[in-house]
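Changelog note: in this version the structure field was regenerated for every chain. One regenerated record is shown below for reference.
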Amino acid sequence: MRLLLIGLLSVSALFGASINLPENFQANFTQKITNAKKKTINYSGKVRFSNKTLLKWEYLKPTKKEVCTDGYELLVVDHDLEQVSNYLISKGFDLAKILKKAKEHSKNIYVTKYENINYTIQVDAKQQLHSIAYFDDLDNKVQIVFKKMRYGQGNLPPKSMKCNYPQNYDMIRG
């Protein structure tokens, strides 16, 4: 769960002072998490960003999950467990502050620090997001690589940014 939250926060740190923040983006992603003992777990799926604070992650492998946030509330839908977890993000989420902090480190590489976590962000030749790497609170190395990145104008339809789940799923409030 913590990894999903950190993953969401990390996407917020994706855009630096000279990295263009699109009004929306959609992409496929792979997420590789490696612990101190070098054990690795790989995730893949799709991600959407809209309206400066809305994020939706659709994890497709190795398990099916949806993670949606507006920067203040986090909803995690675990379809394998038929469970929905709802959390408030205690410190809120200010994408504008994160954007202002990112600094160019070298060509197409940016660094920033948010909530005491250092992020390394890589962009492609068009200055579009390519990858992000960081160490989470548990000293796991996390790397997220984006593929088929599509930047867009305007907000994505609100319905496409919501987590969908049957009413009979168990609800957990955190």
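Spot check on this record: Confidence is low (pLDDT under 50) at residues 3-17, 92-96. The domain at 2-173 is CATH 2.50.20.10 (outer membrane lipoprotein receptor (LolB), chain A).
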